[in-house]
Write a structure and sequence with these properties.
Elements: E1 19-20, H1 21-27, E2 38-39, E3 41-43, E4 53-57, H2 69-74, E5 79-82, H3 84-87, E6 97-99, H4 103-114, E7 124-129, H5 134-147, E8 152-155, E9 159-162, E10 165-168, H6 176-188, E11 193-197, H7 200-204, E12 213-218, H8 232-240, E13 248-254, H9 259-266, E14 271-275, E15 284-292, E16 295-301, E17 307-312, H10 317-332, H11 337-343, E18 357-358, E19 366-370, H12 375-387, E20 393-397, H13 408-418, E21 421-424, H14 434-448, E22 453-456, H15 460-469, E23 476-480, E24 487-490, E25 493-496, H16 499-509
Parallel strand pairs: 3-4, 4-5, 5-6, 7-11, 7-12, 8-11, 12-13, 13-14, 14-15, 19-23, 20-21, 20-23, 21-22
Antiparallel strand pairs: 1-2, 8-9, 9-10, 15-16, 16-17, 18-19, 24-25
Helix pairs in contact: 4-6, 5-10, 12-13, 13-14, 15-16
Amino acid sequence: MEIRQSIPPILRPDLVNPASFADLCRQFSLSFSEVDVKVTGISMNTGDIRAGDLFVAMPGLKTHGANFVAKAIELGAVAVITDKAGEELLGELSVPVAILENPRMHLGALAAYVYANTPGNMPLLFGTTGTNGKTSTTYLLEAILRQLGRVTGLTSTAERHIAGEVIVSRLTTPESTEMHALIARMREKGVTDIAIEVSAQALTQLRVDGLHFDVVGFTNLTHDHFDDYDGFEEYLAAKARLFTNAMATKGVVCLDTEYGSRVVELSEIPVVTISSRAEILADWNLVVTNEIPGKTEFSLTNPSGEKLTSSVPLLGAHMALDAGLAIAMIVESGYEFARLQEVLANGIDAYLPGRTELVSPAGAPSVYVDFGHSPDAFLNTLSAVRKVTKGKVLMLFGADGDRDASKRPEMARVAAKGCDILVITDHHPRFENPASIRKTLVEAARDFRPELEIHEVSPPEAAIRLAVSLVKPGDAILWAGPGHQDYRDIEGVRTPYSARAEARAALKEAGY
């Protein structure tokens, strides 16, 4: 039976100092009726209206938000902001209305005002963007800050953290109204430092507007999201927006992919650079010193030539580089390098859900569940698994439906090149035909490496069981794609599903 997954609630502070709607209108130079009200929240969605909210009615793809104003008022909205087109759709209202053209362009600033997320009243903000590694870097940032004794907040693809409280995420980067409510809640709970994962879509769709980051970081830029962006240049431009004076004060840029140097060129803010490649001249230099299952050791040299040695409880050189980026960002924010040398000497105490996560018991074939879903992510994780595996490496993966189809052949080629056995299955088909997605992947893999043992199996429950039957202790399975997620998206229904649980069940059924 399919069960619709409940969507995690939008988080807000328990108490908000009411803002005068009249004062807000004066702040944004808006004309309004003489009636004033007190505003305690802001929303653009009637599904999240709370009593005391300011409702922002904006034009949408199919209809205008002004058509829902009556419903918003019924649910407790006390004031409305809309544009001229929205005003024409409004009848007589019992609440004050102000007119603001292009309201989405101002939504972040409005939310910042309502929740008092203003300069001098904010925790330290760290923002990380990039194709791969931004989630890992965000978690590592939070872990290091926590080891420094700070009270931390985090918002990522997987989770929200508020002073130790963990909540499942709704979106990688929430809408600006939700983001500002979340930060206000973090402030209320005494959070001092916040690590935020910032997607390209969040920057394009203005979801982090109204925030000013103390330090931002760039991991890399590789083939992904070309369903949203017309190639690398447009994708790069979206990422580079984080490195503008309007968005941040300082930045740290990884140079290990070719687009790192482009970010440095485009940056409006002062940046320092980091690299793990000896041939690249960078301010910070990272060297991986040891890779073993469950741990990657590294040394990091700062611009003054001082060295820090540490480790991450994660598999792969790319994870160590993410840790190095996080450390450099923290130093750029004002923390002393000597303090980090001391605190991290015995390693970084971090847990990253679904990032090359070992889910198999001792004595069984190693099974790693990973969230990677791009060619570059496959390349890095396969390389990492290969380095710590004595026997064969089996790759199990599927591809997202209704998402960038242009990357699918390259995903299959990278997978075929890096493994000994390939099993192709389903992931989130959404509204696409899963058999068609699998066909594209299988054909690309076979064309690239005809001699490779390739299996096509659906559904993934059967695929992981076949995969387990094809390996033995000393071998490894890398199941890429599902990672931490606890559902599959099939024709718009989020069906409860856990790759980690399925992998453990398949191993147990096989006698491990």
